[in-house]
Amino acid sequence: MTRVNTVLGTISAAELGFVAIHEHIGYGMPGCELDSRWWKTPEERYEETVPKLRKFHENTQKWGAATFVEATGICNGRDIDYYKSLSAKTGVHIVASTGFVGGDTALPFFERASVEYLTDQFVHEITVGIGDSGAKAGIIKVGVSRGFKMKELDLRIYRAAARASKITGAPIFTHLAVDCEPALNIFAEEGLPCHRVLFGHADDGVSQGKINEKALLDAGGRIGFDTFGYDLELPDPPFWGRARAERLKHFLRFINSGLVDQVLASADANCSPLGWPGVKGHTVNYLFEQLIPDLREEGIDDSLIDQLFVHNTADFLTLQPISD
Ligand SMILES: [Zn+2]
Questions:
Q1: Does 92 fall in a domain?
Q2: On the CB side of 69, how many CA atoms lie within 13 Å of its CA?
């Protein structure tokens, strides 16, 4: 049987239904919980989050189930007991991440951690559980620190992630697809096939012109169009925003070149952002309210939409250990 780790237990890939592959219940910088401007009571957090997840569940009805992949790594406000409670209340499967969004958001405790230490940490969270929550991570987060160049700690995290992925079979997703050469070298050296890696945010406004798409595709990597909805048309767009039509055109270029197996799409929205105001009006439900209608208008049919959000994602999330 295929296996995927969710916060409420291990399920088969066929049970995932529609998958939003890169989302956040709440993401923040380390220490954000101490910022008095952004303190939220548990009631406020639930109040902001539950309706969005319920709507997500409702929007996915025709696919039979809803899966929300929570892309917040260690140190960025990850809260497993909260995810468990949300999943139980809303019926949405939640897949939690081990790993780090980027080396620059890892607390000093991890700064000098060896590759072996980090590998053990990720493997433990995937096979035993995260803290004392009893929940196992289903995916490994890695990322490029600010500055669009991999830092030394980023490289160590990537290498540990590659080893942990081979041991546990959990896939990897990256924050940013820029400076991919060192990443591709590490995955090749460690013997991890790149179809186990989603190179994320290949569609954002600030990365354009900085991504070697050909190298990623040639290596067999998966390309993440996972910031859908951060549109410049928003009233107060974030610095990584992009014109809606331009992002869609970029995505369609991949789909129309027969690369549908190598792309994944998501909104990277925060249900209830931590320590920052978030982006007003942007939720995981953008996928249903804007993206899927846009795709349909461009002649993309249901089977292709299923391929993107059901089959590609199920294949990617299925635990697939790789022996040497
Ligand atoms: Zn994200």
A1: yes
A2: 34
pLDDT in tens, 34-92: 998 888 899 999 999 999 999 999 999 999 999 999 999 999 999 999 999 999 999 99
Q: What is the whole-number distance in angstroms between the Cα of residue 324 and the centre of ligand 1?
A: 31
For ligand 1, the distance from its centroid to the CA atom of residue 54, given in whole angstroms, is: 20
Q: Classify each residue of 68-107 as buried b or exposed e, where b means 16 or more C-beta atoms within 10 Å of its C-beta.
A: bbbbbbbbbbbbbebbbbbbeebebbbbbbbbbbbbebbe
Percent of the chain at pLDDT > 70 equals 100
Is residue 148's pLDDT more than 90? yes
pLDDT tens-digit series, residues 229-250: 999 999 889 999 999 999 999 9
Cα of 69 to ligand 1 centre, how many Å?
A: 10
Residue 126 resides in a domain: yes
Q: How many domains does the chain have?
A: 1
Q: Domain range for residue 110?
A: 4-317
CATH at residue 259: 3.20.20.140
Rounded to whole angstroms, the Cα distance separating 197 from 195 reads 5
Q: How far is the CA of 274 from the centre of ligand 1 (A)?
A: 13
> Would 324 be classed as within a structural domain?
no
CA 104–ligand 1 middle distance (angstroms): 15
Closest to 285 in 3D by CA, of 43, 53, 12:
53
CA 217 – ligand 1 centroid, Å: 22
Annotated binding site for Zn(2+): 22, 24, 141, 175, 201, 268
What angle, 0 to 180 degrees and rounded to 10, lies between the N-to-C axes of helices 42-59 and 80-90?
50
CA of 24 relative to ligand 1 center, distance in Å = 6
Task: Determine the distance separating the centroid of ligand 1 and the alpha carbon of 189, expressed in angstroms.
Answer: 27
Q: How confident is the model at residue 1 (pLDDT cuts 50, 70, 90)?
A: confident
pLDDT category of residue 33 using cuts at 50, 70 and 90: confident
pTM beyond 0.70: the answer is: yes
Domain-embedded: residue 85: yes
Task: For residue 72, report the distance from its CA to the centre of ligand 1, in Å.
Answer: 7
Annotated binding site: 22, 24, 141, 175, 201, 268
